[in-house]
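Figure-free illustration: sequence to structure, shown twice.
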Amino acid sequence: MTATGRRTVYLLSLGCARNQVDSETMLGRLAAEGWAVIQDPAAAEAIVVNTCSFIEDAANESIDAILEMAAFKDSGRCRRLIVTGCLPERYREDITTALPEVDQFLGTGAFDRIVAALGDNDPGLPACLLPNPDAIAPAPADLMRWRTPAPSAYLKIAEGCSRHCTYCIIPRLRGRQKSVAPDLLEAEARRLLAGGVRELVLVAQDTTAYGTDFLPPGHLADLLERLAVAASGAWLRLLYGHPESIDERIIDAMGRLADVCPYFDIPIQHASDTVLRRMGRGHGGRGLRDLFARIRRQVPGASLRTTVIVGFPGETEADFETLLEFVDAVGFDHLGAFVYSDHEDLASHRLCDHVPAAAARKRYQRLMALQQKISAARNRRHLDRIYPVLIESAPEPGLFEGRTMFQAPEVDGVTYVRGRGLAVGQICPVVIRDTLEYDLMGEPA
């Protein structure tokens, strides 16, 4: 306990931005019940690990982190270790015997039980609590998320996904899409902005499909209009759009609303029609090319980001060359890539002609080498131009690190600013004086 008698908890959040919101929400519940959130696991009486298991590497990272935290039961003050999120949801009750060090597992539909789980051996909870993720309700409108002060914050606008991509486990782990009511989102946005946030990053599994599950259906463009008023002067950014749910109204709103970053994050996964069909995607390469051309035509200065998978079952060398040609032709400002991760609970596992791991890795390296050249060329266009930059940290005297509107947190490059008198959380005009493959360097304009 702290000097004031409050119990102490440490939470380790793994995985995506959506997980980060879940972690902050759980900590908000605990803080409201008198728990003190600390940053040293060795000093914590309770430890929570919020896990990811989207791909094999993420699941392995989660297991390693759990075992690392379990060691504090012997070397630290930990009396209770809780594991939450996608790992227990995916591996179910089997995980209780595989990880006996853990006192309680909570699936993705049980985040609201975190306070009870940290009680001392609550007999009312099974060792692995796995309620239906579709039954999870949004957090109460007055619940404060606990978060480390930072000028950027994620705002989760929907949970789950109603699509059926063959490589993806998310609909099983998180349930069908459930959009959060606009009133709740506006209230949460206002609380975050009142706490000093200067950028709200809207996230969901399929962000551009927001509201389609409402009766009558809603629309993301309406939410953007509403948040642009509530967050006037702060940036709004969208992550995780989908080619099939981004429409003219969304493109128009993103180009028209001054505080909405003209940043289009639209994972395509591939560009070969054959591979896209095997992935269960409802679009083809020509439609994707037309979409990105339309965005650049309608939103001058738009920044394009995408994500792709290489080595998907059945991907031939010709398919991969189609992907390379597509990436080269579009010229994405930012691109992330993954080597296909197989597991027996995926529909894609049952497809034929799996690509050998070594071949998939070589394709990944070729793709990223191409993207590095594209990114460097795209960055050189910014030389001597002036952009607003959100200052996020000051790593040393006279040097600041921040981002432009076309750089998303954690996944893209950053902008380094040499200067004096700047402050974290400030949005200031910066003239770009040098460019690297992914990063920019400048000085106050």
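We now fold a second protein in the same way, so the two outputs can be compared directly.
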Amino acid sequence: MLFNSFEFIFAFIPITLLGFTILTRWRSRPITPIANGADSSIPPTRTRVMVWMVAASLFFYGWWNPWNLPLIVGSILFNYGLGQQLNNGQLSKMVRRGLLIGGIIINLASIGYFKYAGFFLDILGSISGNTFTAPELELPLGISFFTFQQIAYLIDTHRQETKNYSFVQYALFVSFFPQLIAGPIVHHRDIATQFHDRNTFKFSIANLETAITIFAIGLFKKVMLADSVSVYANPIFAAAENGKVLGFTVAWLGILAYGMQLYFDFSAYSDMATGAAYAFGIRLPLNFDSPYKAISITQFWQRWHITLSNFLRDYL
């Protein structure tokens, strides 16, 4: 279900927004805070809204391939449970550090298995002289994004820089559908802290107007710019792949067209993600800042996929 698809624009978003609106207007009596309960500071209405958003996000993720759902659900359960252990003040520093290292290894191994299993088997076969059959694996959508988010969460939890989020808060932080597939890579302090804001889960005409404007800008960049320029880039790259010798002008046309296609496609999805999130009162971080206006390579990377650059800076 792509952001620019009819299913997303005319079915998924309206239905999700309708359920969101109904739940935000469904008031119930406050309940007595639960001792030692992570949900004690969250009103029951807001909890119901978050449960609805988690369910909608998992449906969105499973639209392409329902068999990927156990992977993301398992990842959420594993990392949330590990985070709870890292928050345990009774564990020694050495044990907590061991849990963190083990958690990072398992998370990275999940990416490596799906992305590089065939590559490593080919290397092993060339070294040993044997032939290994690589498993035919379909790369789960967004696995890098939600895995990196959770690695950052584990590191911050080990540093005691996180709050004791409830499970539904954590699940929504990871699975929130606008940023789930193509980013931006969100930090728990960017998203989960908004769940406590009383203005976050409220239907607002002003928010909806802003959301539609931002989403429309992204949709225009995707359909009118990225897809339009691809008709020039794709044939040139296909010709080069087939061994055709390209002239100077044609080669440069392909390079420039692909540069425009790549930027407008990626930034368009970030804009549409920001717009979709805004409809629910969630503010996603800026991911692109006119990178082709940069006057140096350093400035370019500070403006291109900003959330990835921040992740690498803070955690690598």
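Summary for the second example: Confidence is low (pLDDT under 50) at residues 30-40.
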